[in-house]
Write a structure and sequence with these properties.
alpha+beta; SH3 type barrels; 7-stranded antiparallel sheet; 1 helix; globular; coiled coil; endoplasmic reticulum; SH3 domain; SH3_domain; glycoprotein
Length: 127
Amino acid sequence: MSRILDQRILLLVISFSASLQSTKVLSKWKKCGDPECEKAMSRVQAITDYLGPDCRYLNFKAGEEIIVYSKLSRENENLWTGSKGKDFGYFPRDAVKVEEVLIGEEVEVLTKETDFLCLHEDKYTFE
C-alpha cells in the first residue's frame, strides 16, 4: 500500500512540474526582422493602457510609442515583444496599432529559453 501511495505522489509531482515547465515558455516559435531578432520590425502606438501579469511583460499607457522586435507565432500569436525606452517585454498585439512597418519580410525562428527570462537586480529568473 505504501509503495502505491509513493508512486501516486511521484506521478503527481511529475505532472505538477511538467505543467509549471509549460508555463515558462510562451511559444516555441517567433517571427523577427532578421535571424538574430536584432532589427526593429515596426513602430506601434499603444491604444490602451496595459499592465502585464509578470516581469516578462511590457507595461504602458495609451499613446506611448513602442518598437516591436519580434512576434510570437504558432502557439501564441497574440503576443509581441518590444521596447519602450529602457523597458522591454511582451504585450498583446491588440493593445497597439501599427504606425510604421520597418522591415520587408518576417523570418520565423525558434525561441530560446532566455527569451522568457526576467531580469531582476542582475539575476535572471523564470516567473
